[in-house]
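input
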Amino acid sequence: MVLVSNSSKIAVAGLRSTRLSVRSETSGPGARADVGRARSFLALRARMLSSPSLAGALQFMQVTTRPWEPHELTAWLHEHVVAPGWMKAPRAVREPGADVVALCGIEDRRREVAALAERARRRVALALLDFVAPNPEGGFLRAALYSARVRWSVAVDRAGWLPAPRESDFLSDVVLSLFAAEILSGAELYRSHMTVCAACGRVAFAQEARPRGAGCPRCDGEIKGQAL
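output
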């Protein structure tokens, strides 16, 4: 049985009824391109619904659109990073430009946790905006590989990338390792269908090709490749 997180449900909301509207192969290159995008989108949807690392990354980007409470940070770390065995429980959480927050006594650091999570979210959004840009630098995927924040795993029935963050990593790098582990196995698939809101950083997925100026439903800021 596949468990689907609320974040994955949000990202693919309205997509359950997606069907392949297959036209005849003789209908022309435009129709064949549409069919190709529909097929690749269904393949992406199947990957999303079965990826625990992507579920954790999407939840972070979804929930941190508002100030994060200390208990939410500790719960997210445990459920999506520590419990799956990808990282040992850290003693503190770090982010460039923010105060270091020790997990011991974190409930008394509400303001610091909110500021740290906001900085982490912004850094993750900038990395993802570059990924979906027309001429991406691909920085966060290379960084995940070179810093060994992802690892290649070979199991009995399958092989693939897994997150491998360290306790001393910045929170944003932990989140990016969750994205990288999934995206490395299908970068072009994700680049074709993933959109990132330039204003709020929300991550969404669409079957149809979207113009760079397409608006985010919530803040009219979903622009591929535009900096925050």
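quick obs: Helices lie at 6-11, 29-49, 52-63, 70-82, 110-132, 139-146, 171-183, 187-193.
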